[in-house]
Write a structure and sequence with these properties.
By secondary structure, the protein is an alpha+beta fold.
Length: about 725
């Protein structure tokens, strides 16, 4: 190679490097981010890892690292995806809107209907109580009056019969006829007797029809006089007694022991007793049945007449009944009160004392029966309240869905945006304020989606969460640069073919290219740093790491090999005619792409770099510059992937390489050892390239171009010389 050709080659490579060097920040073209978003790679937060002591300086801040799942940690791909996956989990709402509305409506309904029900119940209960007490007292007075009248009639007619017999003579035919007439008209009277001693009756009148119809034997009459001799003595002494004799006769009958004053014919100074035994059925019928139960007792608490005949037949005594006790102790003739029975049942009770036999008529009505109507109304109101409440809850619940569902969707959308996902599937469901908010949210998400194409959304999300702080940190990273070979010539052909439309066609062509390249970077957990015209800068082991510098370097090389395969696939249907004018009007100019990739590993400063208005996460340092210069060496060497010695030392056993002639690079005293990447060691023997010539043929170099490796025919006399090969 003559010196003139070498000089041209070096000048051309120097000019190419100047346009891409991150130190100079110079770029002749700017490509838009691919319109089609690359597949989301998985990202995660940072966890410190142990640095390599021979490669990191003292007090070096190391890269975040993730343990593989089998080691109990989080895989890198899963960690990167967690940023987006978190957005699929809606935040738990402690107090949902639907629950709040249901609670509020429930409280309002219960308060309103409850207060109304209570007020109505209280007021109606008061009226019902007054009415019930008045009604009970009235029934008691009427029953007592009927009972007292019936007793007085019985006594007066019986005494009149006895007076008649005394007047006409007990043994006269008229006496017998008078007794027969009397019993015929008073069939409920069984016995009338007169006596001046407790031993025997001086006069005994029997209603044979009554005794016969009720199966009463004459012997029972004798037994009765014997059993109730004490009552006759008390009555002779001047006491009127009203007794229940049903247990003796086996039928409901009462006995009145009435003091008798002898007639002048019998001796005016004699005191006797008039005994009347009669049926109590008429009294019981007069008391009637129903809610208000009336019955009659004597001063000893014996039940004389009761709707429940069994109590009378059993000779029941209710002296311990609170109302009976009150009656016997009270000096009032009539009284009404609310009392609780011995079994705990509450009653409205009233009594009226009779003027005969120290007896009284008691009328009571059960408390719950009085208020049963109110209780039933209250129950109906409660059922109505429950029904109204249920309908209201169902209505409010479904209505709240029209609020909570859009709000929940907006919450999920906000979480997705926070996680860096700007493509949202939202539609306004209502025409109220929430619908307007949803519409504005959709507009915001579209704006953020467009904005997200101009930055690395994963880094932006981490910076937003505070996981990436302002300032720089030293990182043991692998830096990658790539560039399209012959881009200037291809740009000129686009201009000749499309004229004013050339810019749009070039951008579209580049975007398709960058889409595939970025997929390769992110698939291997790399970070796309920036686009520099037709160039691409990326790095591994900075914001995310595989856990070691060697792993990051290997991922970078894998990405470059994937780019090689992607370009081969893309170029399989492309041609690059020398004269684009030969293309027809309907034929698109879609030239094949050949790139050069430079890879270097070292300690760099990584952080947010820029101004207060615009910042980007990038890396700076000598390893970055060296990676850029290494990429420039691909053109004269007719290679596509070159790595430096620092990268090769980390992964030499993982890749197949061929060492290229050492190059003297500007800024370096020692010649730079570079290696052309052939393939991954694990792919050896699989039909893929295993030599540099096979790689060169795979990427489209001809045999003549391969033979010229290390030379250049470009005129580069005016370019800055940045490298030379061998000992030159």
């Amino acid at each position: 190679m003559n010196k003139r050709l070498k000089k041209k080659l070096l000048q051309q490579l120097s000019a190419t490097q100047i346009s891409r060097s991150p130190e100079l920040k110079v770029s002749v073209k700017t490509a838009e981010t691919p319109l089609t978003a690359p597949a989301e790679s998985k990202r995660s937060n940072s966890i410190p890892a142990e640095p390599s002591p021979e490669r990191l300086p003292p007090q070096q801040t190391v890269n975040p690292v993730y343990k593989p799942p089998e080691a109990g940690g989080t895989s890198l791909r899963y960690a990167k995806a967690s940023v987006i996956a978190d957005s699929n989990v809606s935040a738990k709402v402690k107090y949902p809107i639907g629950a709040k509305l249901v609670f509020i409506i429930t409280v309002l309904l219960l308060l309103s209907l409850g207060v109304i029900t209570i007020l109505v119940s209280v007021m109606v209960s008061s009226d019902v109580r007054v009415t019930a007490e008045d009604n009970n007292f009235t029934i008691n007075q009427r029953s007592a009056a009927e009972a007292e009248n019936s007793l007085k009639v019985t006594v007066s007619t019986s005494l009149a019969l006895l007076d008649t017999l005394d007047a006409v003579g007990k043994d006269s035919p008229a006496a017998g006829q008078a007794a027969a007439f009397f019993f015929d008209r008073n069939q409920d009277i069984a016995v009338i007797a007169q006596s001046f001693s407790a031993a025997a009756a001086s006069t005994l009148l029997l209603n044979d029809n009554f005794l016969l119809s009720n199966g009463i034997d004459r012997k029972l009459i004798d037994d009765f006089f014997t059993s109730y001799a004490w009552a006759m003595e008390r009555s002779i002494a001047g006491e009127t007694l009203l007794l229940n004799t049903a247990p003796v006769f086996g039928i409901p009958v009462l006995a009145i022991f009435y003091p008798w004053q002898a007639s002048p014919l019998q001796g005016a100074d004699k005191n006797g007793v008039a005994l009347i035994v009669f049926s109590s059925d008429s009294l019981t019928e007069a008391f009637g049945t129903g809610a208000n139960a009336s019955f009659m007792v004597n001063g000893d608490g014996d039940v004389l007449a009761h709707p429940e005949t069994g109590l009378v037949m059993a000779g029941a005594n209710i002296a311990e009944n609170p109302l009976v006790e009150l009656m016997t102790e009270s000096t009032e003739n009539s009284f009404q009160t609310l009392y609780t029975d011995l079994d705990g049942t509450k009653y409205f009770g009233a009594f009226r004392k009779l003027s005969m036999g120290n007896a009284a008529v008691i009328t009571n009505v059960e408390y719950k029966i009085v208020f049963e109507g109110i209780a039933a109304t209250t129950r109906r109101n409660m059922w109505l309240t429950g029904a109204v409440l249920f309908i209201a809850i169902m209505f409010i619940w479904f209505f709240s869905k029209t609020i909570s569902r859009p709000l929940k969707a907006l919450t999920v959308a906000a979480e997705k945006i926070e996680a860096g996902q700007f493509e949202l599937d939202l539609k306004p469901e209502t025409r109220d304020e929430i619908g307007v908010l949803t519409t504005n949210f959709i507009r915001m998400s579209k704006a953020l989606e467009i904005f997200g194409r101009f930055t690395n959304r994963h880094l932006a999300v981490r910076a937003m969460r505070g996981e990436i702080k302002p300032g720089g940190l030293p990182k043991h990273a692998t830096i990658f640069f790539s560039d399209i070979r012959g881009f200037t010539e291809k740009s000129e052909k686009f201009t000749r073919k499309y004229h004013e439309e050339a810019s749009n066609k070039i951008i579209y062509w580049l975007n398709n290219y960058f889409t595939r390249m970025v997929e390769c970077v992110e698939k291997t957990d790399g970070i796309v740093d920036k686009y520099m015209g037709d160039g691409l800068m990326a790095h591994w082991g900075t914001a995310f790491t595989s856990g070691s510098a060697a792993g990051d370097a290997l991922n970078c090389v894998k990405a470059a090999i994937e780019m090689r395969k992607a370009l081969a696939e893309m170029n399989s249907t492309r041609t690059d005619p020398d004269n684009v004018e030969v293309l027809g009007a309907d034929e698109d100019y879609n030239p094949p792409i050949r790139i050069g990739c430079g890879i270097n590993t070292g300690i760099v400063s990584a952080g947010q770099l820029g101004s207060d208005n615009r910042m980007e996460y990038t890396v700076i340092g000598d390893p970055v510059n060296l990676a850029s210069r290494t990429e420039a060496l691909n053109k004269p060497l007719h290679t596509d992937i070159l790595i430096t010695e620092d990268t090769w030392n980390l992964i030499a056993d993982k890749i197949i390489v061929e060492e290229m002639p050492p190059a003297k690079v500007k800024g370096k005293e020692k010649p730079l050892r570079v290696f052309a990447v052939i393939n991954l060691a694990e792919n050896s023997g699989g039909g893929e390239p295993e030599t540099l010539k096979e790689v060169q043929r795979f990427i489209g170099y001809t045999d003549s171009e391969i033979a010229q490796s290390g030379t250049s025919t470009d005129d580069a006399e005016d370019k800055e010389k940045k490298f030379k090969f061998g000992g030159e």
